[in-house]
């Protein structure tokens, strides 16, 4: 089971990379309005590095937790900016969560979302309403935890996760940035979607596409 699970995670990371690459220009445009205009490039480099690393590994003899650990190191090595440590910590927390259930069960998938959010919060010291990626990740986690509690099916859970993340990302348009370079703009950050929240939606959509198609329970 773990062999298949490791390959499923590799497929997930590949999908994320393709989707981030496709949305790279839009992400950088969003960042250009309130930041350095490099978020799309940064995220693309990070996930390309993850896929390059996973391609070297013997996935048939790896646990899912080990895939996330490898992803954390590769992402951090490729991305030295603030996003690097945030997602590296997210992936490490996901690896720790998966050690409790290496099967990638539906509960385990919810635990991945929850653990990644916890890692981002711990590393970035942020909270909902700061106009950051957490404005997408936190509602996504709430949706995942709620779906797990009511024993929802795979597609139902991931649809609710993605809908919550999209709503959270859209809500950042009405926020004044409290963290990062965008915070220096003050009221001028109003009206712009946070690029980190936008990329979080892309990541979660790729996760949904991977896990919900498998119909994992």
From TrEMBL:
InterPro entries, per the entry: DhaK_L_YcgS (IPR012737), DhaL_dom (IPR004007), DhaL_dom_sf (IPR036117), Dihydroxyacetone_Kinase (IPR050861)
Naturally occurring in which organism (per UniProt): Mesorhizobium newzealandense
Full protein name: Dihydroxyacetone kinase subunit DhaL
UniProt cross-references to SUPFAM superfamilies, sorted A to Z: DhaL-like
UniProt keyword annotations, A-Z: Kinase, Transferase
Lineage summary: Bacteria, Pseudomonadati, Pseudomonadota, Alphaproteobacteria, Hyphomicrobiales
Pfam families: Dak2 (PF02734)
Top-tier EC class: transferase
Listed PANTHER family: TRIOKINASE/FMN CYCLASE, TRIOKINASE_FMN CYCLASE
The protein's Enzyme Commission number: 2.7.1.121
Gene that this polypeptide is encoded by: dhaL
Domain DhaL span(s) in chain numbering: 7-209
Keyword Membrane: no
Matching PROSITE patterns: DHAL (PS51480)
